[in-house]
Amino acid sequence: MHRTNDKPILTLMTLKGVLEKLPSHKFKRIHRSYIVAVDKVRSILNRKVTLASSTELPISDSYLSFINEWKKT
Asked: How far is 42 from 10, CA to CA, in rounded Å?
């Protein structure tokens, strides 16, 4: 897990387990390997999320619904 102002966190939990502990309106899964904080998403283009930190992450086919959810906010 990467955070903007601190060292990464290492956990043995599954991503599904982590997501269940996070507030669902603030965090969304976009890929089997990635969960993003919705308020840190700067843009979405060509099925890639660009975060406020300029990091680009792919959106997998299974999580394309995130694009429509993000547009509503």
From this structure: 25
Distances in Å between the Cα of 73 and the Cα atoms of 11, 18, 25 are 30, 23, 10
- Going by pLDDT thresholds of 50, 70 and 90, the confidence category of residue 16 is very high
Bridge partners of 51, per DSSP, are 41
Q: How many residues does the chain have?
A: 73
What pTM was estimated for this model as a whole? 0.82
φ and ψ of 11, to 5 deg: -140, 155
64 CB-side CA count, 13 A:
4
Where does residue 13 fall: left (phi above 0), alpha (psi -120 to 50 degrees), or beta otherwise? beta
CB–CB of 30/63 below 8 Å? yes
